[in-house]
Task: structure prediction
Amino acid sequence: MKILTQLSLLFTLCAAGNAVSSVLPVTLPGSVIAMLVLLVLLCTKIIKPANLEPAGDWVLNNMAFFFLPPSVGIMEYFDVLSHYALQLVCIVVVSTVVTFAVATWAGEGALALQKRLSKSK
Result:
């Protein structure tokens, strides 16, 4: 029951983010707004990370379940996608390498910034 309560809090934040997104004059996904609101709530300690940990662990343990609907949707269009298989594989490989490289550079940059800030103190 505890996990259900925590998940309902997360889904409420998502719904609130979507509601805010629909009235904003700029295009911003509701999920991004919900994550920002959750970040603010966690940083201000209105919500403690330990209060959401069981639900987060449950979601991580069942992550494959959330990829089933998109996978089935892709399989419905297999005949269309098969004509572009080589291009799609190239895009996936290149984008994966670029993502790894950018994440590595961002991590190294963050570590260098931390070192520089700790030396200046």
